[in-house]
Amino acid sequence: MTDFENVPVSAPTETQLGTALRRRTFLRVAGASAASAALVLAGCGKDAPEPVVPPDPNLITLQAGETGLLNYCFLFKQLQAAFYTKVVAAYPSDFTAADKTFFADLHDHEVVQRQALSFALGNNYLPPLPFVFTSFTLTTRAGVLAAAQQLEDLGVAALVGALPLFSTFQLRVLLAKMLSVEGRHAALVRDLASPGTFAGPDAVTAGLNRTLTPTAGIAATAAFTAPIVISVANLPTV
Amino acid sequence: MNFFQIIDQLAEVDADLLGRFDSRRAVFNALGTGAKRTAMAATPLFVSALFNKAYAGETGIKTDAKDVLNYALALELLEADFYAQLIAAGQIPAGTPAVAAINKIKTHEDQHVDLLAGAAGMGGTRTGGAVRANGGTPFSGIRFNASAIPNFGTSYDTQLLVAQVLEDTGVRAYKGRAPELLGTELLTVALKIHSMEARHAAHVRYMRYNRGVTTSKPWITVADSALPNPAGPAYKNGITPATAPTSFTYGGVTIALPPYAGPSPREDNTTQSGVDIRTQLGATYSADDAAASFDEYLQAAEVLDAMRAGGLVM
């Protein structure tokens, strides 16, 4: 566990959070991420040889097959839950009472869905990532709604694209149960931002929701996960 | 190899990081406790435990894509005609955003009909479409029976309630059958439409919210399953007759329906795959959160039952 010895093990103070936490997170993600491989090695115990250091510590390669696909879906849930957690912790001053009620629900739904997918993944789940939301303006209602709209539309399109790649019927059902809730979220935050835009032309074409392949979906999350890069190269494509 | 050492390390990562990124520390304080350990010790992709209940499509029941698509078409025709009648009734408050919203939804439903049944050419004859492409004869002429709803022609609020019920039923119906579709292309189309139904449902529910029905959030909370008729059954489960129909016929076109596997989950369901969402995910969530985070499916026999959409077909 060479990687871990070089970083502080005691909890960083709040003021240290920026860099210290980032670094720890990043290292831990990297350490835990060569997905199962590194973990299996780590599990060999104190007497076991040192684990192999991943070649590119910035790179997380999602597993092949449905485990990787489910982790891909899980990533969006992590992203959205982290976003709403930030929002509900400090609502913009121009948020209305109704806005707050809705966003509290949005937060809860995303956390519930994230936890459910984490549960479904057992011990194969993608470690939590330190998402970066600097591209958003979270101090104004308009900024928060624009951000929520981007993340929700992205979430719907990503699930539409990912769901057919699952071969297990039950997983398709589970994700479909979440997909429509995501569609409801997207419609609401759009309506809050600009009434009547629940199906705007940037999200819907000819009465059909947009779809994103995992390759396109992961590219759309890149700015939020940087410097960590997530590869979907091993995911099924048909 | 010590399995629990892995779990401990994962739990450590979790507790360390999640706690800082989520204000709900309580969620993660539970990490490492019995519940979470059990969760982590679960088989990867605990599929077998995930769903105890089998329903059509899961157990190798032969599903004809053309019948699934035609079933979807039947619902789209019903919705399209419903909105045509809603608009014709002239109750939408003039000069409000509702006019554009209802028209937009109507346009989407027409587009779904075109996609499934083929676009109408000169003389109104439809050609092409997904049902024909898969070897079926598309339904046509299915209408919304407004006389089944008291005051439909005069009460805008009633019209919106029926719109909500039809859209929410559409979401449940697509969810009930889309996963049967094999091959990414057809399933993708079905999911795109499914997502649109969800957007419509959310918007209509939000329209009702803005008209003072503050229990009508864009998502389905527990209270919806207790709504009086005619709305309530859309959020519940089960069928009226003892024996479920095995086919559905309209205008001389018949489709086979998958076998009915007993009542589907109700929308106030707070348990997924035997896991109580309220208490077993590492923290405590309200019943509304647990129910609203997952939309539930309905099987064809339930959707077409007289107490739901089936009772509105004319």
Describe this entry's structure for a reader.
The complex is a heterodimer of chains A (238) and B (314). Chain A is mainly alpha-helical. In chain A, 58% of the residues lie in helices and 4% in strands. Chain A has helices at residues 2-5, 17-33, 35-42, 65-89, 97-121, 141-162, 169-193, 214-225; strands at residues 59-61, 204-205, 208-209, 229-231. In chain A, strand 2 and strand 3 (208-209) form a beta hairpin. In chain A, helix 4 packs antiparallel against helix 5 (97-121), helix 6 (141-162) packs antiparallel against helix 7 and helix 6 (141-162) packs antiparallel against helix 8. With 314 residues, chain B is mostly helical. In chain B, a hairpin with a 2-residue loop joins strand 3 (271-272) and strand 4. The longest helix of chain B is centred in the middle third of the chain and has 27 residues, at 184-210. Chain B starts with a helix and ends in an 11-residue tail after the last helix. Residues 1-61 of chain B have low confidence and may be disordered. Classes of the chains: A mainly alpha (238), B mainly alpha (314). At the A-B interface, helix 2, helix 3, helix 4, helix 5 and helix 6 of A face helix 1, helix 3, helix 6, helix 8 and helix 9 of B.
